[in-house]
Design brief:
about 270 residues, alpha/beta, Rossmann fold, 2 domains, six-stranded mixed β-sheet, six-stranded parallel β-sheet, 11 helices
């Protein structure tokens, strides 16, 4: 099998990322002679990096803030990446840049695990309107009877996102109005990634609602710890991260990664 010439994570910042830890564990377990590197890349540095990766038929993942930009630069998109409008998984083939979005599948697995089964009829409050939020909507539109209330600081971006997913999404100006009967509340913003700030006051969240933070941390995020302390079912983005990473691995190499080796590497 011909392997990518280089395997990278592109984002800014990426120093906190756990992806190199578990992806390198999976590479070693599979006997694949590659090292997965995390690269801090500025907006101006993105194009030169992609050009250098093209020369070696590189592959990898994309995180904040480059998911939209890489999507726009792709020569080929999977149907799902085109639907989301953001790319988190890429590879070069015959000099052409291919993009996929495995965040959708990662979120779907994580949400089903948290909710304890089929999420049909789920009432979702979605905080944020970026690429991660679009992935949540792409997953939710496949859930029978699900509805999503988008709450975001950028009203224009929220409206544009809702218009792309009209069967499930609507925009709300206040989370407080819609959390009362929510099944699942999802933070798809970077809030909580590098500080103790929380995206929504847990005091207004009913104890019947499940809470998911797409931000992750080794000891869970402050928001998730606060929600659990109140008695809510709650999970940070680690399960989603592992699952989207496994789906990416399958895209690059055509084989399932060793999931147990990946989990062990994070302990």
């Amino acid at each position: 099998m011909k392997y990518p010439g280089r395997l990278v994570l592109i984002g800014n910042p990426v120093g906190h990322s756990l992806s190199p830890t578990f992806q390198n564990a999976a590479l070693r377990a599979s006997g694949i002679p590659l090292e997965y590197e995390a690269l801090d890349v500025s907006k101006s540095g993105l194009h030169p990096l992609l050009q250098s990766l093209k020369k070696v038929s590189g592959a990898g993942n994309v995180t904040i803030p480059h998911k939209f930009s890489v999507c726009e630069r792709c020569d080929e998109l999977t149907e799902l990446a085109a639907r989301v409008g953001a790319v988190n998984t890429f590879w070069f083939e015959s000099g052409r840049l291919h993009g996929d979005n495995t965040d959708v599948g990662g979120f779907d697995v994580a949400a089903r695990g948290l909710l304890g089964g089929e999420p049909s009829g789920a009432r979702i409050v979605l905080l944020g309107a970026g690429g991660a939020a679009a992935a949540v909507l792409a997953a939710a539109e496949a859930w029978a009877g699900a509805t999503v209330s988008i709450v975001a600081r950028n009203a224009q971006r929220a409206e544009a996102l809702a218009q792309r997913f009209p069967d499930v999404a609507r925009v709300e100006t206040s989370a407080q109005r819609v959390v009362a009967d929510a099944t699942l509340i999802v933070n798809a913003t970077p809030v909580g990634q590098r500080e103790d700030e929380q995206p929504l006051d847990v005091a207004i969240i009913p104890r019947s609602a499940a809470v998911m933070d797409l931000v992750y941390a080794r000891e869970s995020t402050p928001w998730i710890r606060a929600a659990r302390a109140r008695g809510n079912r709650a999970a940070d983005g680690l399960t989603m991260l592992l699952e989207q990473g496994a789906l990416s691995f399958q895209r690059w190499f055509g084989i399932e990664p060793d999931r147990e080796a990946r989990r062990r590497s994070l302990q």
